[in-house]
Amino acid sequence: MGNRRQRLLSQKQRNAIRETFRKERIKAAAADSFFLLIACCLGAFSTVGVMIPNGLTSGGLTGIVRIVQNFVPLDFSLLYYGGSIVILIVAVIFLGLREFRKILLLTIVFPAAIFVFEKLDLQLLEDKDILLAAVFCGVFSGVCVGLVFWRGYSFSGTEAIAKILKKKLFPHYSLSKILLAIDGVIIAASAFIFGRNIALYALITQVIISRMVDIVMYGFETKIVRLEIITSQKQAVSRYIIEDIRRGVSSMEITGEYTKNQYTQLSVMCSPRESILVKRKVAELDKKALVTVLPVETVWGTGEGFNDLEKDQ
């Protein structure tokens, strides 16, 4: 009789835990949907209501579509949809289904938001002002990208292309450098289509976008952070950091002086965006984990994405 009660109690506990996890997943999905919808609206308005009416362009897939639109008389949203789908297919072929899941949602939703704002025909500025347009385009687009990265998602754009180039051709270069080179090529190409001044305004927009992404995700903090993770899921967390985030991770055994229990502490240096992804994964694997985020002014070493120790002297 006692064993039966224990089994019933154990079953109730498991059901309660499953129900709690289900509710948490629903809350997370609702939060993701809310912030991604805001991000898509901001990004669409930035493109349709600020950039295009003032004859501007930018890097990324947006810049590519702006160039193509100069030769193909189709709406921006349709061309963007086509470019997103092409990149999505290429990403699946070269990067696998894991990357597909990250970018599928925004491949569908973001071009749809652009289409809606095209029909609404809303514009931010009363009169044409290229400098103001470049600044506010960068602000709105930066907030859009920052919200997307903060929620752990990606656009179907040049970031996927950069990941493919890194995997296939330039494994020793950081993703940020490859992405910067791609955006530079796109903006340089736009100079031949729209003129050098427009290309220079596009550079201003890209700088503002980069800064706004950092502000949205981490306020005014540094671009390098150190994560210290105390978790019971050492192997799973380490595998995710090494295989998915592609960062090195170190570990050490520590003792809680109050309980005298033994724990494993993982340490990893990464970008703010990557730290968000790691924290989300740790929360998924170990609800009782402790994650500390420490700002880092600079890092010297030969590791990818950090300052070269020999050059930075």
Textual characterization of the structure:
By secondary structure, the chain is of the alpha+beta class. It folds into two domains: 24-218, no CATH class; 224-296, Alpha-Beta Plaits. Helices cover 65% and strands 10% of the residues. The chain has helices at residues 2-51, 60-69, 76-95, 97-120, 130-150, 158-168, 175-194, 196-218, 234-245, 272-285, and strands spanning 224-231, 250-255, 262-270, 290-296. It has a four-stranded antiparallel sheet. A hairpin with a 6-residue loop joins strand 2 and strand 3 (262-270). The chain is elongated and about 65 Å long. Residues 308-313 have low confidence and may be disordered.
List low-confidence stretches: 308-313
CA-based shape: elongated
Compute the number of strand runs.
Answer: 4
Strand content: 5-15%
Termini separation: 74 Å
Q: What share of residues is helical?
A: 55-70%
Q: Name the strands of the widest sheet in spatial order.
A: 2-3-1-4
- The oligomerization state is single chain
Helix- and strand-based class?
Answer: alpha+beta
Q: Tell me the Rg in angstroms.
A: 23 Å
Total DSSP helices: 10
How many domains is the backbone divided into?
2
Largest sheet: 4 strands, antiparallel
Name the helix and strand elements from N-terminus to C-terminus, one letter apiece.
HHHHHHHHEHEEHE
Average pLDDT over all residues: 83
InterPro entries: DUF2179, N-reg_PII/ATP_PRibTrfase_C, UPF0750_membrane, YitT
Main location: membrane
Keywords: Cell membrane, Membrane, Transmembrane, Transmembrane helix
Pfam families: DUF2179, YitT_membrane
